[in-house]
Amino acid sequence: MKRIALITSGGDAPGMNACIRAIVKTCLSKGITPVGYYNGYQGMMDNEFKEMSSSDVKNIIQYGGTILGTARSTEFRTKEGRAKAIHNLRANNIDGFICIGGDGSFKGAQALSEEMSIPVIGIPGTIDNDMYGTDRTIGFDTALNTVVEAVDKIKDTAGSHRRIFLVEVMGRDAGFIALDGALSSGAASVLIPEERSNIDLLAEDLKSQSKRKGNLIVVVAEGDDAGGAADIYNKLLPLMEGYELRYTILGHIQRGGRPSAFDRLMATRMGVFAVELLEKGESDLMVGVKGDDLHTISLQDAVNNTAHAEVSKLNAIKLLKTVT
Ligand code: ATP
Which of 86, 127, 261, 312 is the most buried (most CB within 10 A)? Predict the structure, then answer.
C-alpha cells in the first residue's frame, strides 16, 4: 500500500478532524502517502486533492467541522460521475481508500470498490448515531453534550416561569440524540421516531407531572412521527389550556463545537485501525466500536441494516419513564 485516499462525506460531525489527523499520522509513520480529497466525492470528481503532511493536521484535533470539507454530490451517484472519480484516482496512483461518513457515503465507497477494484474501509462519522454495527459514531457524544448543555439552560428559564418547553433535536430518522439527551438532562418526556407518539397521552402526562415539577422539558426528535416541535406545540395547545407552552429548535449548533474527549479518542482509534486494516489487505469493511473494543463489520451489513438498535432504545424509554 503506497497511497491512501481519504474523504469526509455526508453531514459533518465533530471529531472528523481528529480522525483525519490519525489517518494522516498513521500513514506517514508507515511510509504511506495520505491523499486528502476535498468536499467528499465531489473533490474526487473535480480532482481536488492534497498530499497531506504532518503540518496539515497540526492543531486540528480540537476543532469541529472537517478541514477537508464535505459535500453531497448527486453526480457521484451515477456511473458516469464515478468514472470521472476513478479516472482521477488511477491517475493519482491511489491504491486504498478510507471514507469517513454515513451510510450513503459507504454506498459510494462500495461502488468504488466494485468498479475500480480498490480496497475501501468506512469509518462512521455522523452526529445521528444511526449506523448499524457500531455502538457509537463520531460526533454523537459531542452533539449529545451540546443538547444537554442547551436543555440545562432552557430548564433555568422554564423553571422561573413554570413553562413547559418542547426542545427539538437532530437525529434524522433515529431517536438516539433525543433519547439520550432526555435521559441525561432529566427531561419530563421524549418523542422519538421509534415509538408511536400519542399527543393526548402526552398532554395528560404533562398536566400530571406539572403538579410536582416546576419545569417540564419534552425532547422531540426531528424525525418524530407526530412532527417537529412546532407541530407538536400546535397539537398540544388546545389540549393544555391554562398551561404556558413554548418550543425551541436547537438546530445546527448540534453539529459544531469542540469535539468531546470521547469523540476525539474514538475517532483517533478508528483512524489508526482503518489504516492498519488496509495495510493487512482488508477491504469492504466498516470500523465500529462495541463497548470499549474496536471491531469490523462488512460495509454491506452496515448499509443494509438499521433494526438492531431499536431494542436498546426502547429499554431506554422505560428507563426515562422510571426516572421522571
Ligand atoms: P449523513 O448520515 O451525515 O447524511 P451520509 O453519508 O449518509 O451521511 P449522504 O448524503 O446520504 O450522506 O451520502 C453522501 C454522499 O455519498 C452523497 O452525496 C453521494 O455522493 C454518495 N452516495 C450516497 N448514496 C450513494 C449511492 N447509492 N451510490 C453512490 N454514491 C452514493
Answer: 127
In a domain, 281, yes or no: yes
Residue 19 has pLDDT above 50, yes or no: yes
3-state secondary structure of 192: coil
Q: Are strands 189-191 and 216-221 parallel, antiparallel or unpaired?
A: parallel
CA distance 6 to 57: 13
Output the pTM of the full model: 0.95
How high is the pLDDT of residue 305? Answer: 87
Residue 294 and residue 273 in contact, taking contact as beta carbons nearer than 8 Å: yes
Residue 259 pLDDT > 90: yes
SS3 (DSSP) at 111: helix
CA 306 from centroid of its chain's CA atoms? 14
CATH code for the domain of 94: 3.40.50.450
Residues with CB under 6 A from ligand 1: 9-11, 40-41, 72-73, 76-77, 101-105, 107-108, 111, 126, 128
pLDDT in tens, 102-130: 999 999 999 999 999 999 999 999 999 99
Question: Domains in the chain: how many in total?
Answer: 2
Confidence (pLDDT) at 309: 45
